[in-house]
Amino acid sequence: MSTRQDVKKRVQELRDQLRYHNHRYYVLDDPEIPDAEYDRLMRELQKLETEHPELVTPDSPTQRVGAAPVKELGEVRHAVPMLSLDNAFAEEDVLAFDRRIRERLEVESIEYAAEPKLDGLAVSLRYEGGKLVRGATRGDGSTGEDVTQNVRTIKSIPLELLGRDWPAVLEVRGEVYMPKKGFEALNRRLAKQGEKTYVNPRNTAAGSLRQLDPRITADRPLEFYCYGLGEVAADYAPRRHSMVLEKLREWGVRVNREIKLVIGAEGCLDYYAKIGKQRASLPYEIDGVVYKVDRLDWQAELGFVSRAPRWAVAHKFPAEEQMTILKTVDFQVGRTGALTPTARLAPVFVGGTTVSNATLHNMDEIERKDIRIGDTVIVRRAGDVIPEVAGVVLAKRPKDAKKVKLPRKCPVCGSEVVRPEGEVVARCSGGLFCAAQRGQLIRHFAARRAMDIEGLGEKLIDQLIENELVTTPA
Ligand code: IVH
């Protein structure tokens, strides 16, 4: 028979253990126990809290599931405004930034904190007495939205700080974002349910955080990295930005491991090149890097111009999204006869190259995204992935925009196109009669990982087929 005291003690033990493992897993990305064991601890705590509801506290690890929905998000005035950053696009801009600072401070060389610029949305997290009391979006910089109940569901945001030496008031600022994998999984799930998919992780993160129903936020794979402070009680007076990040890490706040100290403009540009190379393989989207003067006394001396600090700059990467016009849609026939709709676009510079074709995947996708010929569309090219039409700018739809129709005849051989009820893919029924299928099939047959026929490449195959010298792989 357990006494009330025993239960209370066990509840406390479980909370301490869950907090510890939560930090290992979500903040340090270094779990110590298997997921099943974590779940077991969580279930035991849930059971005890159900049996003894008077023991439930708002910062219990069980309380992240999402509170009741609200009618609208409240307003929060930021005690310290949330600023934006000036942009640098070219090397010269970075050299000029560094020169300006050295001249103002009259010093030879500056040490900068170089950080990935996450593409999510800025939030301010207020801790009082080490407990999370408020979460707010940036809004217009002076007033944001109260998203306290929503940020509480993000597991990499601690409900309570670790250690003891934190200031009585501490506002942690950083970026809420959705990792690439989580974004893709969410879109797959939405597509399967026949719902509209999101254009990019950034919009998805913003939409997910600003939900009126925190249970929806809880269901979205959001994460958080901090990059600075807002209001702080006077008893904390750090000397360097890098020391702030070190302290925050000790207090259990998640800090990006890619943040490095560099010296001078040269160090900044090396960092830019290095992160640029990693960009496609990072688990989250970034739209650039940020350089910040590391010494906080120098930051104070430099101050601000209008809404941006003089001591920091965002060095942007080429954009991975652009708007352009969808001129027409062609259908390409694959080896199995599958018809893939391809967007023909007004050429646009995106993700570092000029793109004039993009995949539209299949007819269902076109219908779900409601893409029409003549539309202004958003083209995405992330890393080496083939460019895709991610969405439509409905506000720019012309009156004569035309719906995309699946051709009734194969554009290559004229055979009938069939699309069995309930299937996503439409196919040419021509089989080997269809030159497209023949070519693709022979290409597949001759490929390195199949028969590996040296010299039988794309050009030769096309010639053989055009001249009807070869009709089947056999
Ligand atoms: S510092 C006073 N650091 O970029 C400086 N911002 O264009 C305030 N961002 O609203 C921002 N990563 O949402 C800073 N490592 C980083 C960042 C970062 C992403 C975002 C943030 C901010 C916007 C400014």
Provide structural commentary.
With 474 residues, this protein is an alpha+beta fold. It has 13 helices and 22 strands. It has a 5-stranded mixed sheet. It has a 5-stranded antiparallel sheet with strand order 16-15-14-18-19, with no helix packed on it. The chain has a 4-stranded antiparallel sheet with strand order 5-4-7-8. α3 (91-105) packs antiparallel against α9 (264-278). The N and C termini lie far apart (79 Å). Bound molecules: 2-(butylsulfanyl)adenosine. Residues 83-85, 115, 117-118, 122, 138, 175, 227-228, 290, 309, 312, 314 line the site of 2-(butylsulfanyl)adenosine (IVH).
* Largest sheet properties: 5 strands, mixed
Shape: globular
Radius of gyration: 28 Å
Residue share in β-strands: 25-35%
Find the structural class using helix and strand composition. Answer: alpha+beta
State the helix count: 13
Helix content: 25-40%
Q: Which cofactors or ions or other ligands sit in this model?
A: 2-(butylsulfanyl)adenosine
Tell me the distance between the termini.
Answer: 79 Å
Spatial sequence of strands, sheet with the most strands: 2-13-10-3-9
Average pLDDT, rounded to a whole number, is 92
Could you tell me the number of beta strands?
22
Low-confidence stretches: none
